[in-house]
Amino acid sequence: MTSIGPEGRHLRLGRVGTALAFVALALFLLPFADFRLGGHDPWAELRRMWAGLLSPDFSSVEALGRAAVLTIAFAICGVAAGASAGFVLAPFYRNALVRNFCIAIRAIHELFWAILLMQVTGLSATTGVLAIAIPYAGIFAKVFAEYLDEADPRPAAAMPPRADLISVHLYARLPLALPEFRAYLLYRLECGLRSSAVLGFIGLPTLGFALDTFFRQGMYGAVAAVLIVYYLLIGTMRLWMRPLLVPVYFLAAVGVMAAMPSPPMAAGALGRFLTEDIVPAPLRNGDASDPETWARLGDWLWTLLAGQALPGLAATMIVAQLALVAAGFVALLGFPLIVRPVSGRFGAALGHAFLVIARSTPEYMLAYIALQVFGPSMLPAVIALGLHNGAIIAHLLGRQSAHVNESLRPDAPRGIVLYAYELLPRIYGSFMALCLYRWEIIVRESAILGLLGIPTLGFFVDRAIQEIRIDRAVVLLIVTMLATVAIDHVSRRTRAAIGIDPVKARQERKAAASAG
């Protein structure tokens, strides 16, 4: 092993101490978590589900095919629109206004965007495409900007002194970053397929809608068929998504979206949404020049914050902290499963299969399945978030460990000794960086899982939408956004405090984003 100087020991202790602090916080919050099981027998439900999963039912093959095509079409159109917007915003990302705008739109989950957009565009193709495109635009802008910043600066420095910023960008910076752009676009399309599938849970006819329908009917064989189709889409994407075929796929996806029937919306829906629905009720129903109106607004806002936003935020943070620690344990136990010198050839194959399924299945879908077994508590959310995010981190650490293996001496130990004394010390910094990055994503996902009945912020957003109180939903979404931004800030400060290199952290963050 390589020697570690005093500074390295200090940083290692800082990283270990940080991890222990997160574990201690999770243990402190554990008594406040609602882990009550539902009134039914979870093991009996698991046996019924397992029996159905072992006998897939493809009798609804036409419906599955249509759902799969729509899942792909939504993903392609949404990612294309998001990438186009992010491409335009990336050169200006250093501008505070642009950067904060991108942070705000990507801090709100696709499902939340879809729920809001449904008030204007209904259950339509426009809703699904925009729900993916809006947050993805913020993600693409950030990642594209980082690729541009990391490109070789010498071509830009060699441009004529009178060259304008657009010329420098187009001719000196952009060509160097284009290969990275293309690679990331393919990664993000995989994420788009997951987002597209999840949109089915709010009624859009993707694979998530078929999964929800069959689960509600107890048709677990059909559920298995949906999952098989979904995993085939994800697993074979690199085979059918060829660069030369991208224009064909895009035109076909646009055609599918154009042919999708959309329910008619009342005239002036957008104007009513912007001028009435999202305006707080006291302002909408009162005189803005009357001080009493503003007093009622203060009472309205306090009631909403104290009665819904703060309890929902507390539940969201409890779920997120427990899920983050669970993800860390899954990652530490999972990544050696795919390292052959540790687990062997057969064990590595099984480990790869487990991690592929866990990281390819969206958290929302995993939580939905766990909810059918354990009932509506925080337990399904923690299981889903911990398993999915832990599998992503484990996959990336396993890939990094493969490179570490190549640098080991010929007589290096194998098995658990190799894991504990060679691999873990070398990849621990990457482990911490990836966990801290996924922290922001876990908070974002914890909020959205409230749509399943778990009392996080999404639960209160969903209730406000059902009660047609869009103004309340908007305030709750702003709280969700601010919580996500705050966690991102704390995460960045923590990474800096424990000595994680910013450039390396960005590379790992982009790798994590592409995997998740």
Tell me what the structure shows:
The protein starts with 5 loop residues before the first helix and ends with a helix. It has helices at 6-29, 42-53, 61-89, 96-106, 110-121, 125-150, 154-157, 165-198, 207-216, 220-235, 237-240, 246-259, 269-277, 281-284, 291-334, 340-360, 363-374, 378-406, 415-448, 457-466, 470-497, 502-515. It is mainly alpha-helical and 516 residues long. It has 22 helices and no strands. The longest helix has 44 residues, at 291-334.
Brief overview, please?
The protein is mainly α and 516 residues long. It is built from 22 helices and no strands. The protein starts with 5 loop residues before the first helix and ends with a helix.
Q: How many helical stretches?
A: 22
Overall, the morphology is globular
Please summarize the sheet with the most strands.
none
What is the average of the pLDDT values? 84
The oligomerization state is single chain
Fraction of residues in helices? Answer: over 70%
- SSE-based structural type: mainly alpha
Helix-strand sequence: HHHHHHHHHHHHHHHHHHHHHH
Strand content: under 5%
Query: Span from first to last CA?
Result: 32 Å
Q: Based on DSSP secondary structure assignment, what is the total number of beta strands?
A: 0
Radius of gyration of CA atoms, rounded to a whole number = 24 Å
Low-confidence stretches: 1-13, 512-516
List the helices and strands and how they pair.
Blueprint: H1 6-29, H2 42-53, H3 61-89, H4 96-106, H5 110-121, H6 125-150, H7 154-157, H8 165-198, H9 207-216, H10 220-235, H11 237-240, H12 246-259, H13 269-277, H14 281-284, H15 291-334, H16 340-360, H17 363-374, H18 378-406, H19 415-448, H20 457-466, H21 470-497, H22 502-515
